[in-house]
Amino acid sequence: MTSTAPPQIHRTEVDGVPVYWADTPGRLEAHLYFRVGVRDESFATTGITHLIEHLAYSRLPAIKHEHNGQVELGLTTFSATGRPEAVAATLEDLCGSLGAIAAGDVAPELLATELRVLEAEGSLAVPPHLAEALGTRYGLRGLGLAAAEPVFAERLTRGEVAEFAARFFTRGNSALVLSGPPPEGLRLPLPEGTRDGWETTPTAPQALPAEYVSGGDGLVLSFSLPGDGSPLVGAVAVLGTVLGDRVRATLRRGRGLVYDLDFGCVAVTPERALAVVTCELKPANAVVVAREILSTLRDLRDRGVTADELADVLAAFEEAGDDPQLPLWEARDEALRRIGVAFQPPHDRLLAAIGSVTARDMELVLADLEWSLLVGLPEESLPEGDDADGVLYPRPAHRPADVGPGTEYRRGIAGAVAMGVPRDARLSIGEGGLCMAGGGTVHAFGWEDIAGVAWEAPAKEGAARRACTVIGRDGFVVSLVSGWFRGGDRALAAIADRVPARLQYTETVDARRES
């Protein structure tokens, strides 16, 4: 059996920043972590973490050694690899740069330049299929912001950037991991600050289980399960491995329906996580494969795993303990536990947890499968003439807010001939929010529930704006045209008056779910 003796992790502190290091072969690697990411932004400030990462590097002298910056859901990393003295100089410069940004020392020209660079880069913090699953589940808040386009990025001010940096890019909200001893004279002059905990991502704004039409070719299933900080962490590791093994055996080698399956987890809180299962397949097979995967998950919940399967999982994780990079990974995990990002136990404790997994543990891990399930099916998998009710589960549905009474605008002449405007359509705007009803559906947003308003560009400069899309924080949208309603110009003007100007822009919206 492979030795499971824990690697030696060294701990120290530099300028108030906790430092973890382990002797590993190769050049010195440094990873400076901050507990901040996309989930800490708002729809109005989407992209601000990525912007600060760019600004921090842009203020530095030319760096000759390997380096990188990365923004994830709840973590931002600055990495450098090279000679110890070069790495130390880069880390000191980066920390000084972040301190200057937090103090508001950002030239307007530099801010404008880096905003253009971000627009050119146009990347998401997570793969598109995961961003879509998170956005569909959580809307435009918390983890759901992974799917948001930074439509307001050009409006970010130096004050907003400084405030965000001063809150999150601090010594109390950071940790440094090194692949060797700290270089002599290392300095980390970050601003003072405390650890900033995760925002509380709200539960899904729509009823689950549900099904959505994905924008990709693969199958995506997500559901709630215990997180790495729970006593069931070993069972979660077993679930991911055994599910993949069974699906590959039956649906790839047995029936040729899939190419591969990937199982990953997104931390929601220390105690809860979101499992995300993706399958590479021919889109037309997605419904059949989804049913088979769900059947496998239910079997694992109801019957557990076999002794041979558990032994195979344990052997695979034991083998991972032979990797020469394990000490660095362990140092990283300890650092991330310190700042509240990662919660998986050290490798030796994880092995013990895996080895003691029982059938009851598997039942508990999958206890929330049915009520928390969200399935993304590629469009090609849907039958012709597919209705809005879904194939496996209902489609996500907006939950109207109670906005109270308001001024009512009924369908006008143009609305009578416009396709899709029901005879009984009416728009109500009052103190509590707005409500669009008609054709048996109701969509209502309190003013505080509106993430933004996208206005269609007027036909000519100075003309009245006659169409907009109201974007809810739950990810649902409703499109309005003034001509649809009697007094429609007044209705849209009322919306413009009630929604803060900072949350309004002129652009077409690529929305996920339109009312």
From TrEMBL:
Descriptive protein name: Insulinase family protein
Domain (Peptidase M16 C-terminal) ranges: 156-315
InterPro entries: Metalloenz_LuxS/M16 (IPR011249), Peptidase_M16_C (IPR007863)
Domain of life: Bacteria
Species of the source: Arthrobacter halodurans
A UniProt-annotated Pfam family: Peptidase_M16_C
